[in-house]
Design brief:
With 166 residues, this protein is an all-beta fold. It has strands at 3-6, 18-20, 24-27, 30-37, 50-52, 59-60, 73-75, 82-83, 96-98, 105-106, 119-122, 128-129, 142-145, 162-165. The strands form four sheets. Strands 1, 3, 4, 6 and 8 form a five-stranded mixed beta sheet that branches. Strands 9-11-13-14 form a four-stranded parallel beta sheet, with no helix packed on it. A three-stranded parallel beta sheet has the order 2-5-7, with no helix packed on it.
Length: 166
């Protein structure tokens, strides 16, 4: 079906700071559409500061960006449907995260260790979120809450200055 998956970085990409994943990958004259990111694809890539994921990606595997300690910015595709466990666990410099419409669950470990997270956007499609999902994110000051589920996971966040309800 001419699709491709991002497996990670090889030794040539180990020092890259800014990653832009293409929507299409050409190999031997054939174009493949990139639709997923393998689990642990960028695990522990400490040089990465930003990642742009194309709209074609619908699935991100577990631990895909875990321990990317210097990751500050990530652009998630609007057609993303599935995220594995602990996707952004340990991304301690990540500043904001916009979960796109279609994501249905945010696990307790998905953003664990995101100490500098300041802005979070939760889509209307989220039907499950764990109580301690944002436990380590003590600096959240802007929250966009489009879901109908309980906001217990952001309770007691002292820095919140703005809340936008969908």
């Amino acid at each position: 079906n001419k699709t491709a998956r991002v497996d990670g970085l090889n030794s040539f990409g180990a020092n890259l700071e800014d990653i832009v994943i293409p929507e299409y990958y050409s190999y031997s004259g054939v174009q493949y559409r990139v639709i997923s990111i393998k689990e642990r694809a960028f695990y522990g890539c400490q040089n990465i500061k930003s990642i742009v994921i194309p709209e074609s990606v619908t699935t991100i595997g577990s631990y895909a960006f875990q321990c990317c300690f210097n990751l500050v910015s990530i652009t998630l595709p609007s057609y993303l449907k599935e995220m594995g466990r602990c996707c952004f666990d340990g991304c301690s410099k990540l500043i904001s995260i916009v979960f796109p419409e279609g994501v249905t669950s945010i696990g307790c470990d998905d953003v664990d260790g995101c100490f500098n997270l300041r802005m979070v956007s939760i889509p209307s499609t989220v039907t499950e979120m764990y109580f301690n999902s944002f436990e380590d994110s003590q600096h959240i000051d802007t929250l966009i809450w489009n879901t109908n589920i309980s906001a217990n996971s952001i309770a007691y966040k002292e820095n919140i200055k703005g809340v936008i309800l969908g």
